[in-house]
Every structure is written in structure tokens, then in C-alpha cells.
Design brief:
The protein is mainly alpha-helical. The chain has five helices and three strands. It is globular.
């Protein structure tokens, strides 16, 4: 019986951990933004061009949330006009294995769907 209780507790802990992760990186845009910024820092309009289909309002909100969660840096340069550049943080690099796994799974799934037709 203790094994059953322990595995139930482990299951609940796993579910909570997944909920926490999805809260931070879930949704349609957050991982796309992080991937876009992995190679080099970008200005707002560059990100919007790279992540096609995202509106300026949604991009602004997503960047604020990513910054709040420590995954994106926002640096303001006092040039004229003012220049704002976004980049990934060192902490965001902890997602690299997750992203690589998602890329591989996405490729596999696309092939799976093709073979189902």
C-alpha cells in the first residue's frame, strides 16, 4: 500500500511540475520567441518579423511575461531614438534540452501524420 501512495504522490508532484512549466512557457508564442532570440539579440520589430503571425500587442505581453520569469532580458539604449533590444538570459538556456526534444518530436510527429494518410 505504501508503494501505491508513494507513486500517487509522485504522480501529483509530476503534474504540479508540468503545470508550473506550462504556466511559464505555455501558449502559442513563448517558445517561438525564445527560439527566435537564441541566436542573437533582436529589436521588437525583428522579433515580430521572425515570429510570423504574432501581433504587436501579443508580442509585447509575451515579452513582458518572459522577462518577468527570467527568460528574456530587455535592454534600453539611450540612443536617439531610444533603442530596445531583447535577448535570452543564461537561465533560458536551461530550456535547450526541452527545445531540442520538442523539435525532434515535432519532426517525428509530422512524419507519423504523413504516413497515416
Amino acid at each position: 500500500m505504501s508503494v501505491e501512495i508513494e507513486s500517487h504522490a509522485e504522480c501529483k508532484a509530476s503534474i504540479h511540475a508540468i503545470e508550473d512549466a506550462i504556466y511559464v512557457i505555455g501558449g502559442k508564442w513563448k517558445l517561438r520567441i525564445i527560439v527566435a532570440l537564441r541566436d542573437s539579440p533582436m529589436r521588437f520589430n525583428e522579433i515580430q518579423r521572425m515570429v510570423s503571425g504574432i501581433s504587436a500587442k501579443v508580442l509585447s505581453n509575451e515579452l513582458k511575461e518572459l522577462e518577468m520569469n527570467g527568460l528574456v532580458n530587455r535592454k534600453v539604449y539611450d540612443d536617439t531614438p531610444v533603442k530596445v533590444v531583447y535577448s535570452v538570459t543564461e537561465y533560458s538556456k536551461s530550456l535547450n534540452n526541452v527545445l531540442e526534444t520538442l523539435v525532434e518530436w515535432g519532426k517525428m510527429h509530422r512524419e507519423h501524420i504523413k504516413t497515416e494518410d
